[in-house]
């Protein structure tokens, strides 16, 4: 089991201003699953992503990641869990603008305290895997959107995380480059990664083997797809 | 290992951040530059003065006692000292006979006269009546000619030895030896010029280079000696023997003056220690004021840095969010921003050090010998890093405490 949510609720604010974002969600994702979490805005999808990504903790309920209960950890422990087990891919790429892409990819390993020699070879390897091995010293603003997202994926992969958490990974890309990114994610899944895709686009969600739909803080449906979409659009 | 890695990363990022905002970083640094220049210049000046003073003390000799009517540094009322009988040349000679352990005993007196060579007049110069033994109690030697001799002193010859300043001001390029100058109404033949000693004149102490030495008996004969106040310099064999000598001199002086055991001393033994103590007090005040001004300059500089760090944290809120999402600890972010702030200040400090080197060079040429010593360099570096850390602390804590979700959402 890669991760398990047990009756997770999340409430923002307190007293009269209380806003429930998740109202009791249970979900299990096995290793090497390809899951899309869908839902309109306000459905609790972002909150769920934050909790799965260990950026936030549930108000009640349990979250078990890789066999470890992470529902009530300190900020410092959460930071370490994120570093070791979560690979984020964001809609807006979120690369450090002033650093070259090699440094961007190397960063999680620096935070893990890895020796320079080892981390450099891992970072280079990760960039080679996404096809940017020849542009290590480029800065993000010298790259196209698709290339930037590939850097972000390399950065997410470099620390060999338990799950790859992609939040609207094609949201800022045109259809063609979006398709390229999706096929890269498909390939990573086939190589054994666990991929969790958060999106509101049905076309993107079709790449996953399983689609979890959220509405008003509850799981509305959880279906397997017999014929997931593969490759370019 | 982890911490070291992160420190290295932090310093590298700090450098990049400064380079990315050259003008802003430069302007921010200005406050620190000024502060560090102030620190260095103050300390260098104080050091220079202290060295200068130490040299003067060395000229007077730290193994020399001075028997005088008045103490150099007053404690108590002036009147108790004023009513004491002045010391006389006879007492000096008597003391010399009695204190055999001393290397030399030399009476001196000062009078102030106008001096004249051809048409050049120097007003109110310090005329020192002394003996040939002056050479034994002072480390100064003549640069030209010779000092007074015992016969010249005994037979009241009208000869004089002038300080180097007097030579410069009175004779300029002319060879002063065997020239005749007027001191008050009397003519004297110049027989020697003392080497430059670099006195404590700058800080109100005696300027030995502006003195003129004449035989003490000549002084009494020419300008009167009735109520003249003499100082008697007594030189010990060594610095260790000084304390013994002190008690011996006090004892002998009491015998010479026939003081009964109940009476207090009606003379004072002055030592360099007292002057050194006074000087240290004065320099302490100078240093304090200097440090106060410096402190204000650094404070203003620090506020500037703090301000720019706040701007920097706000600007890079999203970057902080990204770093946190990738696993940066609070401490990592904290260290990163402290390093950046310290690096800005260190840069300013080094620049300030460079400018201070120039200022010191200027002081050295125009005012007094001064140089920047390694401790001053070290202090400048430590102070600038310290200001950076203190100024960066609040912005860094704010950065470290940012919520990663909100920071990631920040536009």
Helix proportion of chain A? 25-40%
**Intertermini distance of chain A:** 31 Å
Write down the domain tally of chain B.
2
Sequence of secondary-structure elements of chain B: HHEHHEEHEHEHEEEHEHEHHHHH
Tell me the strand percentage band of chain A. 25-35%
> Treating each run of at least 4 consecutive H or I residues as one helix, how many helices of chain B?
14
Helix/strand/pairing category of chain B: alpha+beta
Widest beta sheet: strand line-up of chain B: 2-3-8-5-7-6
By CATH, the superfamily of chain A comes out as P-loop containing nucleotide triphosphate hydrolases
In terms of DSSP E residues, the strand content of chain B is 15-25%
CATH architecture title of chain A: 3-Layer(aba) Sandwich
Which term fits the overall shape of chain A? globular
By CATH reckoning, the class of chain A would read Alpha Beta
Strand segment count of chain A? 10
Characterize the largest beta sheet of chain A: strand count, sense, and whether it forms a barrel: 6 strands, mixed
Give me the CATH fold name of chain A: Rossmann fold
Please, could you describe this protein's structure?
The complex is a heterodimer of chains A (about 230) and B (about 400). Chain A is α/β, with parallel strands linked by helices and about 230 residues long. Chain A is built from 7 helices and 10 strands. Chain A has helices spanning about 45-50, 75-85, 100-110, 115-130, 145-155, 175-190, 200-205; strands spanning about 5-10, 20-30, 35-40, 60-65, 70, 85-90, 165, 195-200, 210-215, 220-225. In chain B, a hairpin with a 2-residue loop joins strand 2 (about 105-115) and strand 3. Chain B has a 6-stranded mixed barrel. Chain B has 2 domains: about 1-55 and about 275-410, no CATH class; about 85-265, no CATH class. Chain B contains 14 helices and 10 strands. The longest helix of chain B is centred in the C-terminal third of the chain and has 44 residues, at about 270-315. Helix content of chain B is about 55%, strand content about 15%. The chains are: A alpha/beta (about 230), B alpha+beta (about 400). The interface between A and B is medium-sized, with 30 and 25 residues.
